[in-house]
Design goal:
By secondary structure, this protein is α/β, with parallel strands linked by helices. It folds into 2 domains: 233 residues, ABC transporter type 1, transmembrane domain (ABC transporter transmembrane region fold), CATH 1.20.1560.10; 238 residues, P-loop containing nucleotide triphosphate hydrolases (Rossmann fold), CATH 3.40.50.300. The chain has a 6-stranded mixed beta sheet. A 4-stranded antiparallel beta sheet has the order 2-1-4-5, with no helix packed on it. Helix 1 runs antiparallel to helix 3. The protein is elongated. Bound molecules: adenosine-5'-triphosphate and magnesium ion (MG).
């Protein structure tokens, strides 16, 4: 049975992982990471146990059970019928308990999810927890949930273990009633004593498997509760869908256009972007500036369809991006995001990330352009050095340069830089900036920057505030306007 059971569980886990990879980003804003992790591990495990139990119950002694039932029917149909009624009665009682078991079992799994969430957050935030002396705060939070988990789990197990004495009792009850009913038939001469004794002997063979079956039934209820949580992920609707017969796009030819784009993460909570109109010609660099929270990152996140616009549309070469294949669309873009996202792997693999058939000299060239080569070869194993979880063995600026190298290696026609140089010191910023300017030369780029010195040469500068475009034009024009941009520049000049 082991291969069957493990095969089912492997497929389930693979489906879950696949689903998580493809679900839209918005889904994860509403879920706790730890809870999702708990579903993929603990809940799947629970399902495994219940499958194991069912398989055992079904395959254990099927021939004996079926043979016994046929023999019973042959010996005395009326007694068999009577036994059958008794069995149904028992099943209803036991089934009722099973249902409550399912509900509280669901609570147990939810609690476990919360626990894993706290652990996951604690591991990620240890530095801050220590820095703020928040160990006892976190400890209290964990202990409270841990204790709650213990309480509910005990309740569930208590209820499940109650099943055993109960089914024992029911079993004996059934036999007692059967003896009473059967002996009456024997004394009244309807049934021969020998037949009755044989009947009881045969019936005895059914009781043991039946008891096992009820125990399995209880465990199945726990499995069903876990499966329910797993299915909630599997059934989640992916909001970013590719339309059937989506168009393929290999090259970016003319322009990107934002047409009357309105967007909110949660429409009922108001819009983050309002009626944005923007045209970006091929080969041009545009810069987005504006206060924190103005919606700059949101604006660029719409282009690779991390989120879909609510009103209006985004067009590449005149075609709505919703009509393109997602994979093709995203192939056009290289993204350096606001926070450096790296994986626990070697430097080399982090730069190559996701690309195939990459030559080593190309990786080194990309690292050189990103001004990262020197610090990389100074590490212990050079390009083969492991950088730790999320790259925590590197400095902030080093992490950022790796993400830039990653984008450079991908060599995309459209470049999105969200605060790509914010974590660098002035000197390396200047170096990386030069590299980026070089990189942007034959490309279309959208650059977000707080340090205005870095975007002076952009073809168009868009000044945003509260999700709207306030001013637009190049550096000189905007200065002449003496508006918001000029104010920002003045604030930064010293
Ligand atoms: N995933 C999200 N879910 C809900 N609201 C969000 C989400 N991300 C951002 N927001 C909200 O959208 C608004 C714009 O955020 P955005 O990240 O685009 O700002 P920004 O201009 O990039 O700011 P910064 O310069 O600080 O990076 C903010 O008010 C923020 O609260
Ligand atoms: Mg941002």
């Amino acid at each position: 049975m082991a291969p069957v059971r493990n095969g089912i569980i492997r497929d389930l886990r693979r489906q879950l992982f696949d689903k998580i990879l493809h679900l839209h980003l918005g889904y994860f804003s509403e879920e706790r990471k730890g809870d999702l992790m708990s579903r993929i591990t603990a809940d799947v495990q629970e399902v495994e146990w219940s499958i194991l139990n069912v398989l055992e119950a079904i395959f254990r002694e099927p021939l004996i059970v079926i043979g016994s039932l046929i023999t019973m029917l042959f010996l005395s149909p009326s007694l068999t019928f009577f036994v059958f009624i008794l069995m149904i009665f028992t099943a209803i009682v036991i089934g009722g308990i099973g249902r409550t078991l399912r509900k509280s079992s669901h609570q147990v799994q939810e609690k476990l999810g919360t626990l894993v969430s706290i652990i996951e957050e604690t591991l990620g935030g240890l530095r801050i927890i220590k820095g703020f002396n928040a160990e006892s705060y976190q400890d209290k939070k964990f202990n409270k949930e841990n204790n709650e988990y213990r309480r509910i789990l005990t309740k569930v197990l208590w209820r499940r273990d109650l099943a055993s004495p109960l089914s024992e009792f029911m079993g004996i009850g059934v036999v007692a009633v059967l003896l009473w009913y059967g002996s009456r038939q024997v004394f009244s001469g309807e049934l021969q004593a020998a037949t009755f004794l044989t009947f009881i002997y045969v019936f005895y063979n059914v009781i043991q498997p039946a008891k096992q079956f009820t125990r399995a039934l209880y465990n199945v209820q726990k499995g069903v509760a876990a499966m329910f949580r797993v299915e909630k992920i599997l059934d989640a609707k992916n909001n970013i869908q590719e339309i059937p017969n989506a168009l393929s796009i290999q090259h970016f030819e003319h322009e990107i256009e934002y047409r009357n784009v309105t967007f909110g993460y949660k429409p009922e909570e108001g819009n983050v972007l309002e009626d944005i109109n923007l045209r970006i010609q091929k080969g041009k660099a545009i810069a987005l500036v504006g206060a924190s929270g103005a919606g700059k990152s949101t604006l660029v996140d719409l282009l690779p369809r991390f989120y879909d616009v609510q009103l209006g549309g985004i067009f590449i070469d005149g075609v709505n991006i919703k009509h393109y294949k997602l994979h093709d669309l995203r192939s056009l873009m290289g993204i350096v995001s606001q926070e450096a996202i790296l994986f626990n792997d070697t430097i080399y693999n982090n730069i190559v990330f996701g690309l195939e058939n990459v030559k080593e000299e190309d990786v080194i060239r990309a690292a050189k352009i990103a001004n990262a080569h020197d610090f990389i070869i100074a590490t212990e194993n050079g390009y083969q050095t492991n950088i730790g979880d999320r790259g925590n063995k590197l400095s902030g600026g080093q992490r950022q340069r790796l993400t830039i190298a990653r984008a450079i290696l991908k060599n995309p026609p459209i470049l999105i830089l969200d605060e790509a140089t914010s974590a660098l010191d002035s000197e390396s910023e200047k170096l990386v900036q030069e590299a980026l300017l070089e990189l942007m030369k034959n490309r279309t780029s959208i650059v977000i920057a707080h340090r205005l010195s870095t975007i002076q040469h952009a073809d168009e500068i868009i000044v945003m505030r509260d999700g709207k475009i306030l001013e637009r034009g190049n550096h000189r024009e905007l200065l002449k306007k003496e508006g918001e941009y000029q104010k920002l520049v003045e604030l930064q000049a010293f």
